[in-house]
Amino acid sequence: MRRSDDAGTEEDAMTEPGPLLRLEKIDKNFGPVHALTNVDLDVPAGQVTVLAGDNGAGKSVLIKCIAGIHRPDAGRIIWEGRPVDLRSPRDAAALGIETVYQDLALCDNLDIVQNMFLGRERVRHGILDEEQMEIAARDTLRSLAVTTVQSVRQPVASLSGGQRQSVAIAKSVLWNSKLVIMDEPTAALGVAQTEVVLELIRRLADRGLAVIVISHNMNDVFRVADRIAVLTLGRMVAVRPVAELDRKIVVELMTSGRSDRLAEAGGRS
Ligand SMILES: Nc1ncnc2c1ncn2[C@@H]1O[C@H](COP(=O)(O)OP(=O)(O)OP(=O)(O)O)[C@@H](O)[C@H]1O
Ligand SMILES: [Mg+2]
């Protein structure tokens, strides 16, 4: 089993590392639609950055720029201190950027092991090393304290929404991702399953991964965030540590792009 528990702590001891990912002045237009305008965002390792914003604010477009699905029209994406050009999801994956979508992430007809190794199967002497893959899948789920899955040979179609989400997250851990992006991971989940997924998100950050979570749900936002970034009509109106914000401020920022109470608190935005 690969462990990444120590990731981040060594770096922390050294002088001020930059963020894992930095977006600088990103623009993205679709014809006349300005989906993103001049967006700056730092995404540090070991923290959960929640991306909040109303419908159509540009959240999905922003993460698609990071995932290599859209190319920004202007601005820079800086990864581990170096500018990168992400031409495809493959480029993003090669850097260690994994995106977990609500429903598209897994193949229903395949089992958990097959899903976790899809496209990256382990082969030994020319044949699939099923035993090794099964052990690695089981170890990874166990290391994340995912205990409700009975067998890694279960087809994914038979899993609950929360279990599916857990398997998709475990997959990113198995592949040693450095940044995991989740678009509304709890949108379709019940209370107990939401709890499981939020805990898993916390655990990813505690292992030193950078996590970006899109969420509309203020309960989830404040349960899981270290930092909150608010997009309004394609502009980043605030990026703050969670301690400087409360629900009312975030809702004001989401709806009007400003909050007098935040201004009173004296921060920049
Ligand atoms: N492929 C596209 N072609 C044209 N316009 C697009 C495209 N994708 C997104 N947009 C537009 O860009 C804007 C931002 O869309 P985006 O999907 O990022 O919103 P969002 O913040 O994810 O909203 P939601 O919370 O509803 O998912 C919207 O006005 C949308 O119509
Ligand atoms: Mg969206």
From TrEMBL:
Signal peptide interval: none
One family name in Pfam for this protein: ABC_tran
Keywords, in A-Z order: ATP-binding, Nucleotide-binding
PROSITE patterns xref list: ABC_TRANSPORTER_2
Residues annotated as domain ABC transporter: 21-258
Sample GO molecular function, one term: ATP binding
Domain of life of the organism encoding this protein: Bacteria
InterPro entries, sorted: AAA+_ATPase, ABC_carbohydrate_import_ATPase, ABC_transporter-like_ATP-bd, P-loop_NTPase
Protein name: ATP-binding cassette domain-containing protein
Native species: Nocardioides panacisoli
Lineage of producing organism: Bacteria, Bacillati, Actinomycetota, Actinomycetes, Propionibacteriales
